[in-house]
Specification:
The protein has a domain at about 10-70. It contains 4 helices and no strands. The protein has helices at about 10-20, 25-45, 55-75, 95. The mean pLDDT is about 80.
């Protein structure tokens, strides 16, 4: 999306030197990406203490046992019809292969 914005020249010069950006556009886009990551990190920090991770062997074994019945329960339905092989194309008679002269109609 094309947008015109007014940016402080001194700030842009400092950012361009620190980040080794080739263009102002790269600097602005990286700043937007950083802001997006910062919000995602804030959401992860807000969830701190509410998530439980069981990294023990027993925990992994329990997870595998829970997933196995789901994998067995999913089965492809049996087709209620038979698929026949495609019929072979017949060759056209030799009379159809001979080029017929075209008759032009006279234009008025």
């Amino acid at each position: 999306m094309r947008t015109n914005i007014v940016i402080d020249d001194k700030l842009m010069a400092e950012v361009m030197a620190l980040g080794e950006f080739k263009s102002k556009r790269e600097a602005v886009e990286e700043g937007l990406r950083l802001l997006k990551r910062k919000k995602a990190y804030a959401a992860l920090l807000a969830a701190r203490g509410t998530l439980f991770w069981d990294d023990s062997d027993e925990g992994w074994a329990k997870t595998r046992e829970e997933k196995q019945p789901l994998q067995v329960a999913v089965q492809e339905p049996v087709a209620g019809y038979a698929v026949k092989p495609a019929a072979q194309r017949r060759k056209p008679p030799a009379s159809d292969l001979v080029a017929k002269p075209r008759v032009r109609s006279k234009s008025p």
